[in-house]
Amino acid sequence: MISTTRTAMGVSQSKFGRFLADAVGRDSPFPASRVSEWEHGRSTPNRRVREACRWVAAHDAACEIREIDHRDPDYYSKVERLIVDSQS
């Protein structure tokens, strides 16, 4: 999921590490080498990082695949539903 999410965002491992650090409230960015380890299955990100990736993936799916407009008043509940559905 890490590689797929990063690729969908179209960013480098370094930028993705900064994005994830911001998403989980970490002061320093995750280094590109750590992102690479996650992408290649050499280590597993913690739960908060995985949840941040799920959110990005669901957001991407909501906007592009399901054509849910981010201005929709029920946007967040619809994206949360995508996350729940993707886990079953």
Brief characterization of the structure:
With 88 residues, the protein is an all-alpha fold. The chain has helices at residues 2-9, 13-24, 32-39, 47-65, 75-87.
Structure description:
- This protein is an all-alpha fold.
- The protein has one domain (2-87).
- The protein is built from five helices and no strands.
- The longest helix is centred in the middle third of the chain and has 19 residues, at 47-65.
Low confidence ranges = none
Helix and strand sequence: HHHHH
The secondary-structure class comes to: mainly alpha
Average per-residue pLDDT, rounded, comes to 82
Helix content: 55-70%
Radius of gyration (CA) equals 13 Å
Name the shape in a single word.
Answer: elongated
Structural domain count = 1
Number of helices: 5
Query: How far is the first residue's CA from the last residue's CA?
Result: 15 Å
Main sheet? none
Tell me how many strands there are. 0
Task: Report the portion of residues in β strands.
Answer: under 5%
How is the topology of this model organized?
Blueprint: H1 2-9, H2 13-24, H3 32-39, H4 47-65, H5 75-87
Q: Main attributes?
A:
mainly alpha, 0% strand
